[in-house]
């Protein structure tokens, strides 16, 4: 990926960051880079995620999914980091396999999703690092029951990805299900380039090697200066802008196929950096759609935002048919791709003209190689930003708190978090 921070500089934008302050920040980037490299070498928790391009074994993943490789549909049951990476990859590319992601536990939605699937031709991909997440386990039990009610043997059609131990691992062992392990030291939201994100990609027939090669190429760009490394340029610029008042980061891909990427990014940024009363609030947007809604706020609302554009150079196009309606003649000379590019250029220029900071992240194409680089680059940017904020990027105590409270409220164990919720409810 390439990163252009020109429209985030103080001469163009407010709140912008000056070149001189980025140069000063670069000394901290050099130290942070050393810390990151050390963490990777020592395979420390979290930093190990940046080693995935060389550690993930595509053959192992393909062997595990072989029994269901001809499935017409794939139902992935998981939530948060155990869903969004897989969904980002699956939704980026065409496939003959229909993909459905069951993360939420809204009963009407779950029932509708299940009813829409040809269960006899559907494979189940259940993913949970801890193996204890209530939403995932509950949905899996519901899915199993639906398969049994339809007379379909779910044990023949299920792949499990989980940790070494826990209820999901026990279940996989009891039914002798094909299973993969979530790699040690890799937090959920950093696991897209492991089996967690790549089982779905394998069933859909996507190029796993290219995903990892793209990520490996991005790893090669990590260097001790933000001026030499696109990922660090992004992480350091967002950090600096946040310090100057851009507390919101609206991520706006100009590609429908990358809409889920914005969701993945929002999780990565929020759950990793939102600590100690620090962190930037990620917002999901989509170009050109949100030019007709959120853009008003970005250009004329409070000066507390950074807009991150994600653009794709090239790809399939479609010409706009000619018409004899005079006022529409200009469209007939163009393609939809040209129109989308013009929409982006107009939006980027309009924000710059209004002194609103924006950063452009550029991909050469929406393919596995480029997406692997993008996922890796943003993970590296996030790790760098975490070092600059001095937060623990790889923990998520607020998320864990809510998980325990939920389990406790349903009688799934004694948790002080659940007692706190009960007390608060009684006080109302
Ligand atoms: O990044 C994280 O740690 C979380 O978003 C988890 O991925 C999410 O809570 C799901 O957890 P698990 O994989 O244990 O079911």
UniProtKB/TrEMBL annotation:
<dbReference type="GO" id="GO:0004347">
    <property type="term" value="F:glucose-6-phosphate isomerase activity"/>
</dbReference>
<comment type="pathway">
    <text>Carbohydrate biosynthesis; gluconeogenesis.</text>
</comment>
<dbReference type="Pfam" id="PF00342">
    <property type="entry name" value="PGI"/>
</dbReference>
<keyword id="KW-0312">Gluconeogenesis</keyword>
<feature type="active site" description="Proton donor">
    <location>
        <position position="271"/>
    </location>
</feature>
<dbReference type="GO" id="GO:0006096">
    <property type="term" value="P:glycolytic process"/>
</dbReference>
<comment type="similarity">
    <text>Belongs to the GPI family.</text>
</comment>
<protein>
    <recommendedName>
        <fullName>Probable glucose-6-phosphate isomerase</fullName>
        <ecNumber>5.3.1.9</ecNumber>
    </recommendedName>
</protein>
<dbReference type="InterPro" id="IPR035476">
    <property type="entry name" value="SIS_PGI_1"/>
</dbReference>
<comment type="pathway">
    <text>Carbohydrate degradation; glycolysis; D-glyceraldehyde 3-phosphate and glycerone phosphate from D-glucose: step 2/4.</text>
</comment>
<feature type="active site">
    <location>
        <position position="403"/>
    </location>
</feature>
<dbReference type="InterPro" id="IPR046348">
    <property type="entry name" value="SIS_dom_sf"/>
</dbReference>
<dbReference type="InterPro" id="IPR035482">
    <property type="entry name" value="SIS_PGI_2"/>
</dbReference>
<keyword id="KW-0324">Glycolysis</keyword>
<keyword id="KW-0413">Isomerase</keyword>
<dbReference type="GO" id="GO:0097367">
    <property type="term" value="F:carbohydrate derivative binding"/>
</dbReference>
<keyword id="KW-0963">Cytoplasm</keyword>
<dbReference type="InterPro" id="IPR018189">
    <property type="entry name" value="Phosphoglucose_isomerase_CS"/>
</dbReference>
<dbReference type="GO" id="GO:0005829">
    <property type="term" value="C:cytosol"/>
</dbReference>
<dbReference type="GO" id="GO:0051156">
    <property type="term" value="P:glucose 6-phosphate metabolic process"/>
</dbReference>
<feature type="active site">
    <location>
        <position position="292"/>
    </location>
</feature>
<dbReference type="GO" id="GO:0006094">
    <property type="term" value="P:gluconeogenesis"/>
</dbReference>
<dbReference type="GO" id="GO:0048029">
    <property type="term" value="F:monosaccharide binding"/>
</dbReference>
<dbReference type="InterPro" id="IPR001672">
    <property type="entry name" value="G6P_Isomerase"/>
</dbReference>
<comment type="function">
    <text>Catalyzes the reversible isomerization of glucose-6-phosphate to fructose-6-phosphate.</text>
</comment>
């Amino acid at each position: 990926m390439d990163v252009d921070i020109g429209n985030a500089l103080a001469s163009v934008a407010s709140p912008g960051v000056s070149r001189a302050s980025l140069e000063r920040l670069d000394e901290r980037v050099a130290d942070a880079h050393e810390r990151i490299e050390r963490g990777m070498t020592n395979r420390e928790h979290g930093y190990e995620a940046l080693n995935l391009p060389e550690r993930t074994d595509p053959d192992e993943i393909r062997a595990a999914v072989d029994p269901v490789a001809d499935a017409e549909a794939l139902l992935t049951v998981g939530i948060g980091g155990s869903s969004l990476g897989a969904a980002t990859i699956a939704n980026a590319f065409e496939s003959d396999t229909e993909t459905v992601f069951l993360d939420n536990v809204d009963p009407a939605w779950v029932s509708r999703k299940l009813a829409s699937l040809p269960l006899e031709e559907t494979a189940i991909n259940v993913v949970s690092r801890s193996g204890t997440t209530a939403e995932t386990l509950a949905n899996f039990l519901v899915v199993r029951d639906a398969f049994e009610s339809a007379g379909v043997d779910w044990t023949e059609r299920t792949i499990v990805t989980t940790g070494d131990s826990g209820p999901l691992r026990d279940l996989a062992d009891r039914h002798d299900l094909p299973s993969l392990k979530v790699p040690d030291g890799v937090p959920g939201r950093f696991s897209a380039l492991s089996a967690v994100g790549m089982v779905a990609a394998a069933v859909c027939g996507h190029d796993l090697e290219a995903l990892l090669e793209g990520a490996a190429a991005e790893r090669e760009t990590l260097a001790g200066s933000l001026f030499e490394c696109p990922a660090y340029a992004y992480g350091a610029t967002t950090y600096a802008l946040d310090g100057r008042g851009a507390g919101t980061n609206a991520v706006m891909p100009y590609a429908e196929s990358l809409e889920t990427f914005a969701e993945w990014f929002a999780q990565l940024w929020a759950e990793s950096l939102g600590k100690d009363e620090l962190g930037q609030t990620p917002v999901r947007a989509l170009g050109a759609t949100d030019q007709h809604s959120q853009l008003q706020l970005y250009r004329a609302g409070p000066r507390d935002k950074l807009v991150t554009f994600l653009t794709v150079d090239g790809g399939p196009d479609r010409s706009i048919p000619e018409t004899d309606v005079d006022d529409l003649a200009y469209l007939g000379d163009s393609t939809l791709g040209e129109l989308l590019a013009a929409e982006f250029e107009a939006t980027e220029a309009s924000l710059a003209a209004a002194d609103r900071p924006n950063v452009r992240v550029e991909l050469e194409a929406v393919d596995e190689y480029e997406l692997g680089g993008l996922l890796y680059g943003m993970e590296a940017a996030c790790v760098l930003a975490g070092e600059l904020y001095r937060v623990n990027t790889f923990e998520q105590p607020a998320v864990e708190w809510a998980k325990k409270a939920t389990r406790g409220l349903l009688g799934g164990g004694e948790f002080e978090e659940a007692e706190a919720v009960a007390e608060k409810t009684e006080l109302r």
